[in-house]
Amino acid sequence: MNGTRRNLDYIIYVQDKETLNPEQFTDPSSIPEGGRIVALDIGTKWIGVAVSDELQTIATPLRTIARRSWKKTLAEVLDILTEFDAAGLVIGLPLNSDGSESEMSAEARRLARNFSLSAKLPVVLQDERATSYEARGRLWDRGVTLSDTRSMVDSEAAAIILSDLLTRR
């Protein structure tokens, strides 16, 4: 079955304007207990992806995808959600160190809303302050080279975002 066909199971017609999520996307209890959760660390060029186990105890970095047009990004994320039969989607919310909103916070909220309109699963935002720094540190502690760190840091940050959400629940 090709990716486009699988994506049809997740599409909600936008004209219905129905969303499964509150406007703020802050309640992690909206994600069912049990089943895999996918997390995204959204940057301007790359999106880090991580996934939990079915018991929602372990967060594992998965891969990094290029951020392209909305349609291509949506299709790629929907393929990942389908592949892992995801029960929920977590998106990192990049706040300033003082907790205030940034330009990228608004972008994360916009994308969370867009994903909630396109995927038949709960979407939750999770504070992601300093996750990229923590991800680099973890990779360096494991002996990953600087050049490999660059390609792995986004998915590692997504795993930290997911782990923080699992702890918060």
Describe this structure in words.
Strands 3-2-1-4-5 form a 5-stranded mixed beta sheet, sandwiched between helices. 41% of the residues lie in helices and 19% in strands. It has 5 helices and 5 strands; from the N terminus they run H-E-E-E-H-E-H-E-H-H. Helix 4 (131-141) packs across helix 5 (146-168). The chain is of the alpha/beta class and 169 residues long. The radius of gyration is 15 Å and the shape is globular. The longest helix is centred in the last third of the chain and has 23 residues, at 146-168.
Can you lay out the helices and strands and say which pair or pack?
Layout: H1 3-8, E1 37-42, E2 46-52, E3 59-66, H2 70-83, E4 88-93, H3 103-118, E5 123-127, H4 131-141, H5 146-168
Parallel strand pairs: 1-4, 4-5
Antiparallel strand pairs: 1-2, 2-3
Helix pairs in contact: 4-5
Brief characterization of the structure:
This protein is an alpha/beta fold and 169 residues long. It has helices at 3-8, 70-83, 103-118, 131-141, 146-168; strands spanning 37-42, 46-52, 59-66, 88-93, 123-127.
